[in-house]
């Protein structure tokens, strides 16, 4: 059965490649966003991951904002995209991944080469411009994945883009649960684990519940990026029930 599900996942990925190659060039932003959202939800369903969106923001509307979330797995991108298609900021080495890197680029991912100040500045200026143009931008401020039950420090640099663009920050908490409501170990994508190994674990898991928890908006007016980053981290930590120290 896992082999059959893997075949269906590979077929879904192939459909995504064909769509990006032959449909995206002739599609506007709204149509592309709808395709990405639908494709992401389809991928998760094939992996037997059921997405539940939980609103703890206390707000009825959704003002334009910079979206941030904790980072557990490669699935996080698709969980968020199943709610709203976003342009993600990701490490530049993802661009070299076979198929996945190309798909990410076609979906509007912004690749960041860490340690290259000129490149970081260029990306930063692009983020400010896109935020001012009301484009949905998201990133994972931990900078890498962490096992569930842990929350790494949030890097503050990219929060400055929200401050300069004069938009708030919208934090989300992401968690993957088993049938007993506990963190599902098959979701963790950490260390030297490969994408293939992670996919094998997920397909063998027999299903899991992905929760995308929308948290209260954080104003950036007159704020410092470190303050905003810490507020976002504390909010995410509270939703996950983990400590935000360190």
UniProtKB/TrEMBL annotation:
Pathway: Lipid metabolism. It comes from the Bacteria. Residues 65-177 form the Phospholipid/glycerol acyltransferase domain. InterPro entries: Plipid/glycerol_acylTrfase. Keywords: Acyltransferase, Lipid biosynthesis, Lipid metabolism, Membrane, Transferase, Transmembrane, Transmembrane helix. The chain crosses the membrane at residues 6-28. One of its GO terms (molecular function) is acyltransferase activity. PANTHER family: 1-ACYL-SN-GLYCEROL-3-PHOSPHATE ACYLTRANSFERASE, 1-ACYL-SN-GLYCEROL-3-PHOSPHATE ACYLTRANSFERASE-RELATED. This is Lysophospholipid acyltransferase family protein.
């Amino acid at each position: 059965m896992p082999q059959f599900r893997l075949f269906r996942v590979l077929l879904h990925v192939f459909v995504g490649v064909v769509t990006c190659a032959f449909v995206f060039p002739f599609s506007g932003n709204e149509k592309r966003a709808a395709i990405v959202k639908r494709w992401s939800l389809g991928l998760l369903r094939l992996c037997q991951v059921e997405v539940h969106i939980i609103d703890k923001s206390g707000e009825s509307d959704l003002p334009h904002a910079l979206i941030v979330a904790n980072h557990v797995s490669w699935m996080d991108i698709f969980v968020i995209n199943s709610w709203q298609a976003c342009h993600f900021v990701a490490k530049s080495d993802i661009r070299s991944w076979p198929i996945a890197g190309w798909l990410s680029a076609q979906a509007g991912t912004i690749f960041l080469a860490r340690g290259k100040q000129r490149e970081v500045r260029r990306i930063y200026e692009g983020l400010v411009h896109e935020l001012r143009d009301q484009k949905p931008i998201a990133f994972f401020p931990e900078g890498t994945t962490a096992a569930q039950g842990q929350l790494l420090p949030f890097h503050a640099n990219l929060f400055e883009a929200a401050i300069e663009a004069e938009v708030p920050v919208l934090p989300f908490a992401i968690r993957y649960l088993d049938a007993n409501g506990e963190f599902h170990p098959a979701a963790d994508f950490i260390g030297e684990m490969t994408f293939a190994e992670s996919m094998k674990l997920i397909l063998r898991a027999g299903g899991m519940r992905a929760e995308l928890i929308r948290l209260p908006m954080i104003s950036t007016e007159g704020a410092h990026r470190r303050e905003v980053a810490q507020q976002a981290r504390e909010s995410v930590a509270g939703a996950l029930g983990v400590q935000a120290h360190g």
